[in-house]
Amino acid sequence: MIIHCPLNQKTVGLLDDFAEAGADEFYMGYRNTDISNEDLFSRRFGELTNFDSIESVLAVCEKTVKLGAKSFVAINELFYPENWHDALIDDVVKLSAGGVSGFIVSDINLMIKLKKADSGLFIVLSSTAHVMNAKSAAFYRGLGADRIVLPRQLLPGEIAKIASSQKDCGHELIVINEECPYLEGVCSYCHFPGEESPNMCRQAILYNHLPAGFGYSLDSCGVCALFSLRNREDLVLKIAGRGLAGDMILKDVSFLKGAVGFIDISETEEEYGRKCAELHKEVFGERCGRKCYYSVGRKPDSNVTGEPARPQMVQGVVKWTSSLSYDSLSEDVSGEGGGNR
């Protein structure tokens, strides 16, 4: 399994440390003030969160290549003004020529235009596209998506079905940090700083304006679900949090690398969950919060690290019921022509 690690202007100095700890890929955002003076390219705000120019991204890319790693650039707002498209395409072509491995995109129109501009571009479909079943995955694969970031509200079995339905498409899971109780692909809350809207997302306000780690949930995790997906060695495991401090990200990478290493030496889901919980205590210095992504079948025992359980914690980022499972849409659709490009 591949570990996908965030970078920002402050943490880029730890690039070698991240790679040594186990990171295989890196992703980042950037600014281009010729297009816009605001941070509107990658759904993340903050002075250090995005790199200041294409040149600074290319410098990072050069370092990742020397480490034998890949670099990805997020251009993943839900949509962009059409008069931005040509400039964004020029940026992408320049970044690709400079060695950037791929681009994280949500805007369908931009994705289509990028593929027309260069059919060889590697496109990662952002989780904001909200792919919840195999037919949706086939649709985006047909538009040119080479990898799909799946939402955190899926069951492991649904993830396996979606991944199996598209043999020539990669799949990525967000496995650490940034719990949100909503389906981000259909979220209607405002996320722009400075807005006076009563519909403003409180999490976004806190994340954008407070120091890293304050006011934002960082203990959400989908690692225990990896045991059910142990046969999917091609899965990309994403660490969320481009705005986080370097020491936090380094712990995330170390924890995830260790958890992946436990998969092959664990005989049961229960055993694997216990090992992950013990590792969590060792790496982060605190017990597993049992805030599980992907609604795993068995959570780690509440006292696995010898501390009292937190009774307010519940499994999953949403409450699941049987009505939320779409097995009929998760079947292999390759024979229906939906997977053709």
Describe the 3D structure.
This protein is of the alpha/beta class. The protein has one domain (2-331): TIM Barrel, CATH 3.20.20. 30% of the residues lie in helices and 12% in strands. It has nine helices and nine strands. It has an eight-stranded parallel β-barrel with strand order 1-2-4-5-6-7-8-9, surrounded by four helices. It starts with a strand and ends in a 57-residue tail after the last helix.
- Count of discrete structural domains: 1
- What's the total number of strands? 9
Query: In percent terms, what proportion of residues is strand?
Result: 5-15%
Look up the CATH topology: TIM Barrel
Radius of gyration: 19 Å
- Given the helix and strand composition, which structural class is it? alpha/beta
Helix content: 25-40%
The protein's oligomeric status is single chain
Sheet with most strands: 8 strands, parallel, barrel
C-alpha end-to-end distance: 26 Å
Principal-axes geometry comes out as globular
**Lateral strand order in the biggest sheet:** 1-2-4-5-6-7-8-9
Q: Mean of the pLDDT scores?
A: 77
Q: In sequence order, what are the helices and strands, one letter per element?
A: EHEEHEHEHEHEHEHEHH
In the predicted model, the low-confidence regions spanning at least 5 consecutive residues are 212-217, 309-341
Look at the structure and give the CATH class.
Alpha Beta
Count helical runs: 9
CATH architecture: Alpha-Beta Barrel
SSE layout and pairings?
Elements: E1 2-6, H1 15-21, E2 25-30, E3 50-51, H2 54-66, E4 70-75, H3 85-97, E5 102-105, H4 108-117, E6 123-125, H5 134-143, E7 147-150, H6 156-165, E8 170-176, H7 202-209, E9 236-239, H8 246-262, H9 269-284
Parallel strand pairs: 1-2, 1-9, 2-3, 2-4, 4-5, 5-6, 6-7, 7-8, 8-9
Helix pairs in contact: 3-4, 5-6, 8-9
